[in-house]
Amino acid sequence: MRSLIIFALIIVSVGSVEAISEYDYGRETHCVNITPEYEKCYTTLYSGVRFVPEDGKWIEAENAKRLDDKGVFSVKSVKDDGIHGLDVVSFNHSCITLRPYPKDMTKFKYGKKIKLKIDGTEKGKVKIPGPLSPLVDIIFCFADGTMSHNYTFGDGSTTIKLQDADTENLEDAYLRRYYPDNNYGSVTAILCLPSGYSSYEKRILNKFDMTSLPGGATIESSTYYAYVINNGLDSVDSFDINIHHDYNQTWIEGDVTWNKVFGVHVYNTTEEDENSFDTDSPTGWYDWTVTNMVNKSYNDGDSNITFYLISDNRAGSPYAYDDIDINSKEYATTSQRPYLNITYSAGAPPPVPCCYENNVTNTYTVLANGTCFCAFDGLEVIGE
Q1: Does the structure show a pLDDT above 70 at 345?
Q2: Which end of the chain has the smaller Cβ count within 10 Å, N or C?
Q3: Average pLDDT over residues 40-66
Q4: Are 328 and 359 in the same domain?
Q5: Which pLDDT score is estimated for 14?
């Protein structure tokens, strides 16, 4: 579920320069009008919902009083036994209110106590009320957020979880040569490992939406960010992770496999940027410059862009599980998911001063032939 319809414009004047900020559920853009005909913008495309409207303004989702009323989250049924019912009354980032109830009273006795579990661990029992008694709401709060847990009513029975919306990060998955027909599109960590030991190689695909960029813009720079959650390298191991442009726009994370990509997808075999990893490389944020590939996709009119992360330059003996693990868009903490920054300009830039004396710009006029009519201390000269 995606929404690119609702957005907000915030206009702030800084001296004679007008700054405009625009927000959507998975995107923020900040523009500065250099002249009435020329602006520079900085946009960030996120994974999942980062902002929601509340009380007439856009705020970070983690700070919202409620998330259940925003229309971008849903409740996913993991298992439904047809007997135990479990409704979500309300939730925000930290707390959730659940309402367990019997779906089929012929399977229950009034007063019977039924287990309520979080991630398979019993957190209490719910007494089945009589026909004239109200249902009981139960509140759970979590330091790591409500989105990362499964909620079960009954002993291994009905289970639900909260579902985040896909926003600008459309798809991500990793490919595993050892299991070439297995799909790894719903995992919370996507893995990278170079070839060199039999068939243990792992590669990463990540697709972002490009349709929010305006027409007629000039891409000035772009950077891809990913959060490394685990470094599995041993003391003598190291390798690089390179970022390539994969030209396939139609792959789906729930279907993609090694065999459907390797030798099938066309990609630029020359990487645009790389990061080097060894056993001392810390977890946290890493970035790759992707300006050329974003510029190509934009100028080609592509609706999305796919980044293909491939590792090479192996040293030591990285083995099957000596990989670098990156948070995917399914990772519970939205602020640690992959994102893409793009800086672009739109309109006609102001003329660049072309007359200098001792590194000081002087009075000038741009002539029709493109040269400058300059004045230095009253002496007129023609310059370029």
Answers
A1: yes
A2: C
A3: 93
A4: no
A5: 42
In a shared domain, residues 189 and 248: yes
Phi, psi (deg, nearest 5) at residue 107: -95, 0
What is the Cα–Cα distance from 151 to 126, expressed in whole angstroms? 13
Per-residue confidence band for 107, with pLDDT thresholds at 50, 70 and 90: confident
Nearest of 316, 337, 341 to residue 327 by alpha carbon: 337
Beta-bridge partners for 84: 102
Domain edge (last residue) among 163, 197, 224 = 163
Instruction: Write phi, then psi, for 106 (nearest 5 degrees).
Output: -70, -15
**Residue 368 clears pLDDT 80, i.e. is over it:** no
For residues 320-330, b (16+ Cβ closer than 10 Å) or e, as one string?
eebbbbbbbbb
Instruction: Find where tokens 């479990």 sit.
Output: 86
Same domain, residue pair 221 and 270: yes
Eight-state DSSP code of residue 34 = E
Whole-number Å distance between alpha carbons of 309 and 225: 12
- DSSP per position, 201-247: -EEEEEEEE-TTSPTTEEEEEEEEEEEEEEE---TT-EEEEEEEEE-
How many domains are there within the chain? 3
Domain that holds residue 119: 74-163
Rounded Cα distance, 245 and 222, in Å: 13
Residue 65 has pLDDT above 90, yes or no: yes
Q: Are strands 17-24 and 304-315 parallel, antiparallel or unpaired?
A: unpaired
Reported as a single tens digit per residue, the pLDDT across 175-213 is 999 999 999 999 999 999 888 666 789 999 999 999 999
- pLDDT over threshold 50, residue 113: yes
Interatomic CA distance for residues 9 and 303, integer angstroms: 24
Please report whether residue 178 resides in a domain: yes
